[in-house]
Write a structure and sequence with these properties.
single chain, alpha+beta, YojJ-like (1, elongated
């Protein structure tokens, strides 16, 4: 205790500014760790930290041979970090440089209902589909990889695009500002090793595009008809129609408005075409997958 008492006056005084500074640094470090969590970059970061730790241990213990060997490697770690983490850095900077923190582009109630109704019929028919909804970060690069359409969103058009055997069946449909910009688009596949192997190409493409942008991807499995939603690199599988509608509204900050007079004519399969989408008789609990 006397030794600690002598060392205590040498410690800097903790002020309000110091507390804010510590919390800011902790927040930045936490966000950096969240960017690489569960990806291959996480293992690379651990390897870099091990090399830095070995270098410090060699300097502290006087291991000159080991220090000399690592001295040729450690100075290039800065360049190696930029090269190895380029996708993570690009994704983080893109999120920070978004045009607005609250989305205002996509979100018309009619367009959302058309997408939900199309997902319902695709699920019932067990027809695979992938619909990407643009938010703030532009998807022009991926739109140019497909077939341009620039058409109004409708359930019939989406069902026609994803019909098996047609030229536009494979690939993704990209929606920009309440219009279908293109179909049969190529998307980047996620390389997350923690992702379950039973997910196919559509689910991996949905996660991959949401890892790089702030869009939302709706996936319908052709094997079991399950509806999934991917956003910010995370996939939520086994959603019901009301849950799908709620996820879209939350992602785009859409305020739901109830119609004054609900339509009386039911659509196919007992669903009301312009009101709330019908709830399947057998609801599956949502399964959240965090890569």
């Amino acid at each position: 205790m006397p030794h600690l008492a002598r060392l205590w006056p040498a410690a800097p005084n903790l002020t309000l500014t110091g507390i804010i500074d510590i919390l800011a640094v902790a927040f930045v470090v936490y966000q950096a760790l969240m960017v690489v969590r569960g990806t291959r970059a996480g293992h690379i970061l651990i390897g870099i930290l091990v090399m830095v730790g070995l270098y410090g241990l060699a300097v502290w213990t006087g291991l000159e041979a080991l220090r000399s060997l690592l001295s040729f490697i450690v100075p290039y770690l800065g360049l190696a970090i930029i090269v190895l983490f380029q996708s993570e850095i690009r994704r983080t900077l893109a999120r920070l440089g978004r045009k607005s923190w609250v989305s205002a582009g996509f979100g018309a109630a009619e367009s959302i209902h058309e997408i939900v109704l199309a997902a319902e019929q695709l699920s019932e028919q067990k027809t695979g589909g992938l619909i990407v909804l643009e938010r703030d970060i532009g998807l022009r690069t991926f739109v140019e990889s497909g077939v341009p359409l620039d058409a109004r969103i409708s359930r019939d058009l989406l069902l026609s695009i994803f019909q098996p055997g047609l030229p536009l069946h494979d690939g993704a449909v990209i929606v920009q500002k309440d219009r279908i910009a293109a179909a049969a688009c190529f998307l980047p596949l996620t390389t997350n090793p923690a992702l379950s192997r039973h997910f196919g190409t559509r689910h991996r493409a949905a996660i991959g595009i949401t890892e790089e942008t702030d869009c939302l991807a709706v996936v319908v499995s052709e094997e079991n008809g399950r509806i999934s939603v991917a956003a910010f690199g995370e996939l939520t599988a086994g959603l019901s129609l009301p849950e799908l509608l709620e996820r879209i509204n939350q992602h785009f900050a859409v305020k739901r408005s109830e119609p004054e007079h609900p339509p009386a004519d039911p659509g196919p399969h007992g669903a009301v075409s312009l009101g709330e989408p019908s709830i399947p008789a057998e609801r599956r609990p949502a399964e959240r997958v965090q890569p």
